[in-house]
Structure formats: C-alpha cells, structure tokens
C-alpha cells in the first residue's frame, strides 16, 4: 500500500510540473504579465529560499501541538507563493504536497505504534515476572515468619506440650474449614446441575412452543409474535444491561489494577528491603567476633541483673526479719505496759473505794450536825427580827430619845455586836452550804464516772483474766516467726552461694573480655565515636550561632524598626 501511494504521488507531481510549465509559458506571453515584470524581476534577482522546502518532521510527534482538526504542522512559506495566478493546478500541487506530508507522518506514527506494541509485550512479560516474584516472595515471607516463630519459641523456652496443644487446635480448625469448603463445593455442584436441568427444560419448552405456534390459529400466532417481540426487546435490554455491567466490571478491573500496581510498588520496595536485609546478614556473618562479644556482654548483663535481683530479695528478706523482730518487741512492750497500767489502776480504784466508804460512813453524822446548826441560826435570826420590829414600833409611838439613849446604849451596842456576829456566821454558813452542795454534785459526778470505770475495768479484767490463752497465742506466734526467720536465713545462705558463683563467672568473663583483641578494638572505636559526637555537637552549636547571627528575618526586623524611627523623626521635624 505504501509503494502504490508513493507511485501515485510521483505521477501527480509529474503532471503538476507539466501543467505548471505550460501555463507559465502562456502567462509570460500575456500583455498583462509584461507590465508587471519590472516589479517581479527585482524579486527574482534575489536568492530566495522560498523554493527550498524545509523538512517538517524533525520534531517528535509527541512534542508537536494539537488542534481541533488534528496535528498542527509548522507553517512554512509555500513553494509557489509568489505566483501571480493561483489556478487549479496550483491548489492541486498544494494538496499533493500535503498528502505526501501526511503519508510520511502516518509512516512515523505506524513506527511509533509498533514500538508501543513491543513495549506492551515487554510490559506484559515483566508483569508476569513481577507476579511470579511476588508469589515467591509471599511464600518466602511465610517460611521466614515460620522460622522467626520457631526462633522466638526457642528464645522464650516454650514448652513442647504447649506447642502440641497449639498444633492440635490448628488441626481442628483446619478440619472444620475443610469440611465447610467441601460443603460449599457440593452446594455449587448441586446448583450447576439444577441450572443444566432448567436449561434443558427451557429448550424443550421452546421446541414445544414453536410446534404449537405452527399448528395454532392466526390469532394465537399474532399473539405469539407479539410476545416474541416483547421477548426480543427484553433480550435487547438485557444485552444492554449486560454491556453496562461489563463496562462496570472493566472499570472495577482497572481500579483493581491500579491497586495492584500500588501493591507491586510495595512489593518492589519490600524486595529492596529484603536485599538490604540479606546484605546486612552477610555483613553480620562476617562480623562474627563482634556478635560473640555482644552475646558475652548480654550474658554479663543478665548475670548482673540476677545478682541485683538476688541482692534486692535478700534485702527484702532482711527487712521482713527486722519488721517481725520489731513487732515481737513491740508486743512484749505492750504486754508489759498493759500489766503495769492494770496494777496502777487497780491500786487507784482501791484507794477511791476506801475514800468513798469513809465519806459514806461519816455522811449522816455530818448531815445531822449541819441541820442542827441551821435550826439554831434560824431561831437566832427570828429573835433578832422580833427585836428590830419592837424598836421600830417604839420609834413610831414617839418615845423620848434622850431618855432612852443613856439606858439603852449598852443594850444597842450589845445587839449590834450580836447582829454583826450573826451576819458573819450566816455568811460563813451560807458559803459552807454552797461548798457542800458543790461537793455533793462533784461527788455524784465522780461516783458515776467511777461506776463507769469500774464496769470498764471489770470488762478488761474479764478479758485479761484468760492469761493462759494469751500466753499460748503469744508462744504460737513466736514459733511461727522463728520458723519464718530460719527459712529466711536458709534462703539467704542459698542466695549468697549463688551470688558467689555468679561473681566468679563474671570475673572470669571480664578477664576473658579484657584479654580479647576485639574488645580492645571496640573500646578504641567507642572512644573515637564519643570524640566524633563531641565534634558534631560543637559544629551544631557553631552552626546554630551562625544562623542566629546571620538570620535574615532578625536583620529585616531591626532595619524596619530603624526606618520607622527615622520616618517618625522626619515627620516630627
């Protein structure tokens, strides 16, 4: 096809040349052309590049711009732009030239399509390889996870019985899942058999319907035709819906492919990580001595941790023993103090009882004496009141005072002295009575308190009367505490022996590490590492200081503040 198109283009070009030469000869002999030759000769005399056709297809097809009609070809000056008459042959030449250009472009596009197909084929093969590698990677990851699980179990010292139990549980779960899968497979088979039976029934019914339609009346035929049309329309709708469903499925597949592409990128990253892990593993196998040192250091740390734990346990045991001994001492002190308090309180109670008994024995005699004194004082008061009333009556009758003065002065003095004595005695007796009432109230309160104390002390005496039981409890507790103390001592001795053995092992390991060359090299490297860290820290501080000093924003803020201040000063001026 390409050769035929090329030959047709060459024949058209030849015809174009013949026609153009004939027409140019005719145009030159025309009188109108002769008048215009003067203007044309100047142009023809110049070396024009218009006749030279520059190649259009140096650019790639992807880089060339597009328009609504297709590719936008860069426009050059036409070969026959300066023709005076643009007739049919001129436009035919333009069309042939454009066709040639389009043919060349089609060739290049076909080459691009072939390259794209080759890329697609390589992409499919790479895709299949990637899928195979991903499946292999999954399988290897599963194996690696199994090995990691075994390693973890070995490190954690898991029991074989637990592993056997887990294996049995997993087996039972697998058996249940296999039974479910078999059930689903049987159900699927049954459904497929039902579908086949239904398809055979449908074909038989169609055959019967065709026979009935041929043998039936015209009305039934028309009805059957209408139903067939309806059936066809429904089938068409079904086909359309199926096509839409296919489109949706394709969209779903595209989306899944995009997701898978993301998964592939993740797999590639995981493959890279796996390669890096393999490289690290190789480096670790080379650095076997370093690993041995790290293992020894780990063991040393474990032994130190054990020693610390044992020391903490011994300290706790000692503290417990001290607490128990302090409790025993406190119990002994409390029992002694309780006994001393008991003796003191009993003596106080006995003294109080003696005083109360004496008071109660003398109380009626004292009461009778006080009652007699009260009656005497009352009689005296009555006598004095009678005398005073008689004197007042005598003054009211108007007796001569001067006559009475000399005779009754002595009597008045005696009466006044007696009255004063009586008043003093009354005050004393009233005070004594008040004091006695207060004493009676206090005694009643004390008696009530003493009764309550007697009851409490009786209860305490009843509680402490069973001294034998208390002594038995005390002895039993003492025995238990002594047994605990002996057990603690035995544990302490065992821990001491273990600690000594571990210390010996640690000393041997430390001596071995000090003699080891790898340890010396590592110590040197650690010192160098600390020195480099110090240098890095100093460099960071220097950089921070340099950034702070050469910060653009701080300088900008200062400059802006200075400009504002200058503007304010200028405005003030």
From TrEMBL:
Q: Which UniProt keywords apply?
A: Coiled coil
Q: What ranges does the record list as Polar residues composition bias?
A: 1-38
UniProt xrefs under InterPro entries = IFT74 (IPR029602)
Which GO CC terms are listed, alphabetically?
cilium; intraciliary transport particle B
Q: Which region ranges are annotated with the description Disordered?
A: 1-55
**GO MF term set:** beta-tubulin binding
- Domain of life (superkingdom): Eukaryota
Coiled-coil features, chain-numbered ranges: 160-258, 409-505
Membrane-traversing stretches: none
Q: Which GO terms describe its biological process?
A: intraciliary transport involved in cilium assembly
Q: Does the keyword Cytoplasm apply?
A: no
This protein is called Intraflagellar transport protein 74 like protein
């Amino acid at each position: 096809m390409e050769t035929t198109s090329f030959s047709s283009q060459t024949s058209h070009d030849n015809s174009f040349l013949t026609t153009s030469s004939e027409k140019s000869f005719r145009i030159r002999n025309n009188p109108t052309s002769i008048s215009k030759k003067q203007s044309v000769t100047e142009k023809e005399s110049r070396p024009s590049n218009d006749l030279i056709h520059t190649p259009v297809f140096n650019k790639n097809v992807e880089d060339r711009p597009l328009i609504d009609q297709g590719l936008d070809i860069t426009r050059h000056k036409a070969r026959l732009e300066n023709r005076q008459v643009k007739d049919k042959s001129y436009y035919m030449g333009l069309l042939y030239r454009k066709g040639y250009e389009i043919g060349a472009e089609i060739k290049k596009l076909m080459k691009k399509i072939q390259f794209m197909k080759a890329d697609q084929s390589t992409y499919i093969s790479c895709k299949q390889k990637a899928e195979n590698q991903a499946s292999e990677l999954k399988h290897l990851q599963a194996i690696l996870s199994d090995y990691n699980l075994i390693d973890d179990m070995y490190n954690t010292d898991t029991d074989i019985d637990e592993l056997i139990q887990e294996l049995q549980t997993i087996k039972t779960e697998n058996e249940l899942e296999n039974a479910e899968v078999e059930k689903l497979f049987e159900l699927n088979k049954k459904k497929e058999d039902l579908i086949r039976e239904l398809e055979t029934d449908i074909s038989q019914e169609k055959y019967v319907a065709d026979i009935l339609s041929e043998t039936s009346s015209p009305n039934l035929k028309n009805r059957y035709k209408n139903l067939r049309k309806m059936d066809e329309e429904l089938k068409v709708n079904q086909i359309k819906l199926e096509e839409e469903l296919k489109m949706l499925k394709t969209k779903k597949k595209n989306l899944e492919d995009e997701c898978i592409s993301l998964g592939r990128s993740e797999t590639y990253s995981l493959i890279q990580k796996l390669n890096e892990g393999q490289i690290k593993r190789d480096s670790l196998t080379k650095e076997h001595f370093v690993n041995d040192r790290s293992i020894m250091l780990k063991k040393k740390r474990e032994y130190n941790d054990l020693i610390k734990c044992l020391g903490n346990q011994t300290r706790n045991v000692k503290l417990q023993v001290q607490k128990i001994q302090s409790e025993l001492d406190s119990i002994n002190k409390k029992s002694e103090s309780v006994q001393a308090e008991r003796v003191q309180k009993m003596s106080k109670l006995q003294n109080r009882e003696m005083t109360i008994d004496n008071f109660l024995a003398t109380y009626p005699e004292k009461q009778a004496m006080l009652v007699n004194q009260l009656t005497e004082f009352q009689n005296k008061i009555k006598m004095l009141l009678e005398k005073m009333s008689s004197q007042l009556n005598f003054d009211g009758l108007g007796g001569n005072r001067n006559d009475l003065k000399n005779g009754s002065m002595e009597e008045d003095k005696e009466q006044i002295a007696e009255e004063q004595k009586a008043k003093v005695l009354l005050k004393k007796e009233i005070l004594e009575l008040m004091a006695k009432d207060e004493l009676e109230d206090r005694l009643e309160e004390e008696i009530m308190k003493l009764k309550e104390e007697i009851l409490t002390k009786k209860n305490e005496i009843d509680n402490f009367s069973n001294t034998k039981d208390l002594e038995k409890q005390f002895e039993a507790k003492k025995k238990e505490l002594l047994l605990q103390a002996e057990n603690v001592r035995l544990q302490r001795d065992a821990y001491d022996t273990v600690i000594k053995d571990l210390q010996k092992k640690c000393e041997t390991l430390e001596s071995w590490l000090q003699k080891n060359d790898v340890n010396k090299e590592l110590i040197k490297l650690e010192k160098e590492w600390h020195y480099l860290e110090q240098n890095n820290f100093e460099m960071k501080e220097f950089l921070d200081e340099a950034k702070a000093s050469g910060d653009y924003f701080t300088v900008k803020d200062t400059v802006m503040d200075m400009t504002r201040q200058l503007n304010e000063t200028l405005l003030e001026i």
